[in-house]
Design a protein that fits this description.
Elements: H1 10-38, H2 84-87, E1 103-108, H3 109-123, H4 137-149, E2 164-168, H5 179-191, E3 194-198, E4 207-213, H6 229-239, E5 246-250, H7 254-260, E6 265-267, H8 269-279, H9 281-292, H10 299-305, H11 308-315
Parallel strand pairs: 1-2, 1-5, 2-4, 5-6
Antiparallel strand pairs: 3-4
Helix pairs in contact: 3-4, 4-9, 5-11, 8-9
């Protein structure tokens, strides 16, 4: 049988089809991976945080999107959550009903800083006060949180982080004088939560606090958001999933406080200040509050003892 030159036989056509199948399968696999990666929860990405909508209702954070598993509340009969009454308390300044050794604290640093800025403006109405949220002030909140770290969380369930966690927003490009500060803070966000230790008066051992940053789990830079609210909700869901913790969130952000009541008890800046005065001693406590009001107590010493990357970010202009 004569076959025209250049025209494949039926056998060669079958061979071509067989050889094409691996390429087609690889292309379909790439397309499928791209579609799957767009869904939240893939590769450990955090789901969207609860949003306040009309009627006061909220969407739920699902444990399956955060890696699977059933929350401990789902294992107990309905209505028998022993911490429900404390999670829904509307008294942000009220003392906690538990011992400090059994409690853990998470601090929304930037909302606390802004609360003290308002106090400074009220006490000095004749002065024009201008500050940079990410220069000098993060050290003051960290120093105050270390006062709580000496007493809180000594008797608690296992956790990947320290009993006291301080979470910071990312700086907004429009309020920054240079790109260096944006770069250094984004670098901290990529590193993830990190434990930082300091030594306090009348303490022989180093006390550690976990520092976390916006943009670590959810990148909101495309929408222009720099808040750490997603990171706070993500971390609260993780640490309260397996055990009924006596967890406290310190924030002045009402929307974040409303969303966080599913996981923990919420307290405000006044409670935070009262705990510092009570636990810091007659001399150290008032000095810490003075620093939060713009003083310089302990700022230089704390900055020198911080890891290089963190101190560089806290001082970058």
């Amino acid at each position: 049988m004569r076959v025209a030159r250049g025209s494949p036989t039926s056998q060669s056509r079958c061979q071509l089809i067989v050889h094409r199948w691996p390429a087609v399968a690889a292309l379909l696999a790439v397309v499928g991976l791209a579609v799957a990666s767009s869904g939240r929860g893939f590769c450990g990405l955090a789901p969207s945080a609860p949003h306040r909508i009309s009627g006061g209702s909220r969407t739920d954070l699902r444990a399956t999107a955060l890696g699977g598993g059933i929350r401990w509340e789902e294992k107990v009969p309905a209505g028998q959550d022993p911490l429900f009454a404390f999670k829904t308390q509307a008294h942000p300044d009220k003392p906690l009903p538990w011992k400090s050794e059994e409690c853990e604290v998470m601090v929304d640093a930037m909302s606390i800083i802004k609360w003290y800025w308002k106090r400074i403006e009220e006490e000095h109405e004749d002065l024009l006060v201008q500050n940079d949220l990410h220069v000098g002030w993060p050290v003051r909140v960290l120093q105050a949180a270390h006062v709580l770290a000496k007493h809180y969380g000594r008797d608690r369930p296992p956790s990947p982080w320290c009993p006291v966690i301080v979470v910071y927003d990312q700086p907004h490009p429009s309020s920054s004088f240079s790109g260096k500060k944006i770069k250094t803070w984004k670098n901290l966000g990529r590193q993830g939560p990190r434990s930082v230790g300091l030594t306090f008066p009348q303490a022989s051992d180093e006390i550690k606090v976990t520092c976390a940053y916006g943009g670590t789990y959810v990148d909101q830079s495309a929408s222009g958001k720099t808040r750490c609210d997603r990171e706070i909700l993500y971390m609260l869901e993780i640490i309260t999933r397996d055990f009924p913790r006596r967890q406290v969130l310190v924030t002045e952000d009402r929307a974040l406080a409303d969303d966080a009541t599913r996981y923990c008890t919420v307290r405000g800046a006044k409670w935070f200040e009262s705990e510092i005065l009570k636990l810091g001693g007659k001399k150290h406590g008032p000095n810490i509050i003075e620093a939060l009001m713009g003083g310089s107590y302990g700022i230089e010493k704390v900055t020198q003892n911080l890891p290089k990357g963190i101190s560089k970010a806290f001082l970058s202009l």
